[in-house]
């Protein structure tokens, strides 16, 4: 069911309304659902975007197909959301939290493209073993990140053009990056990602694609722009 979750007449009011939104994301073992991450991401997107990219008054509706409608005087923007996290990593996180498995500090797992779905027992053994694995070198984290983000965008493209998905004058995609990797040079990584998105025709489906973790947001549509992620409601 569609629900207007935010109205703002001015940039200052937008900041105040964002501060009031419930954007807590529970642990996977404590009932996390898609709508938790969706609200977390849309709030951070609106807090981070330069105010010049918005117009007022604006209304934000939480819906489905797409996940949000951002209605502004000069345009309506449909915003779809996806979380970039390998299935095995999400399930391993659940087991760590639920069963208290493994050390509190552990090696970053190296996830292979197209990795098969592991059993719970396989994941438990890997968590307890906490092996260092092969690691990364050079710009391999940035290239792996770009390939993974492109893959998640590719998965969303047919859904965003299917029957029942409402298209608007502008259509955006937010990718919430929860993929385990070493520290990424986002400026470099975005230059690897942008041509992959262009080659697959992603910008014919989404006018702008935003990828963010808990510190940075990459804006892709023309020349990649890297924003420091802003906390919703901060003045």
- Record field, number of beta strands: 8
Low-confidence stretches: none
Instruction: Measure the end-to-end span.
Output: 32 Å
Query: How many structural domains are formed by the residues?
Result: 2
Order of helices and strands: EHHEEEHHHEHEEE
- Rg for CA atoms: 18 Å
Overall body shape = globular
The SS-based structural class is alpha+beta
Helix content: 25-40%
Describe the structure.
- This protein folds into two domains: 3-85 and 139-228, no CATH class; 87-129, no CATH class.
- The chain is built from six helices and eight strands, in the order βααβββαααβαβββ.
- It has an eight-stranded mixed beta sheet, sandwiched between helices.
- By secondary structure, it is of the alpha+beta class.
- The model has no long low-confidence stretch (mean pLDDT 93).
- The longest helix is centred in the middle third of the chain and has 21 residues, at 140-160.
- The chain starts with a strand and ends in a 7-residue tail after the last strand.
- A hairpin with a 3-residue loop joins β6 and β7.
Concise description?
With 235 residues, the chain is an alpha+beta fold. The protein has helices at residues 11-20, 34-48, 87-99, 120-129, 140-160, 186-199, and strands at residues 3-8, 58-62, 68-72, 75-84, 170-177, 208-212, 216-220, 225-228.
Task: Break the fold down into its secondary structure elements and pairings.
Layout: E1 3-8, H1 11-20, H2 34-48, E2 58-62, E3 68-72, E4 75-84, H3 87-99, H4 120-129, H5 140-160, E5 170-177, H6 186-199, E6 208-212, E7 216-220, E8 225-228
Parallel strand pairs: 4-5, 5-6
Antiparallel strand pairs: 1-2, 2-3, 3-4, 6-7, 7-8
Helix pairs in contact: 3-4, 5-6
């Amino acid at each position: 069911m569609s629900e207007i979750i935010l109205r703002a007449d001015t940039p200052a009011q937008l900041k105040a309304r964002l501060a009031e939104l419930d954007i807590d994301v529970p642990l996977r073992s404590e009932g996390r659902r898609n709508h938790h991450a969706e609200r977390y991401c849309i709030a951070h997107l609106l807090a981070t975007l330069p105010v010049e990219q918005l117009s007022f008054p604006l209304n934000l509706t939480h819906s489905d197909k797409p996940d949000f409608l951002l209605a502004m005087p000069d345009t309506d923007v449909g915003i779809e959301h996806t979380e970039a996290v390998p299935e095995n990593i999400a399930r391993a996180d659940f087991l760590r939290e639920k069963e208290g498995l493994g050390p509190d500090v552990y090696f970053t797992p190296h996830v292979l493209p197209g990795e098969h779905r592991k059993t719970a027992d396989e994941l438990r053994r890997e968590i307890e073993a906490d092996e260092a694995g092969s690691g990364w070198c050079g710009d391999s984290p940035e290239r792996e990140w770009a390939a993974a983000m492109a893959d998640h965008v590719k998965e969303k493209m047919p859904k965003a053009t299917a029957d029942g998905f409402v298209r608007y004058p502008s259509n955006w995609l937010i990718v919430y990056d929860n993929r385990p990797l070493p520290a990424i040079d986002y400026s470099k990584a975005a230059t690897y990602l942008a041509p992959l998105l262009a080659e697959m025709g992603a910008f014919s489906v989404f006018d702008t694609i935003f990828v963010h973790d808990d510190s940075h947001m990459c804006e892709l549509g023309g020349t990649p722009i890297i924003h420091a992620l802003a906390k919703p409601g901060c003045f």
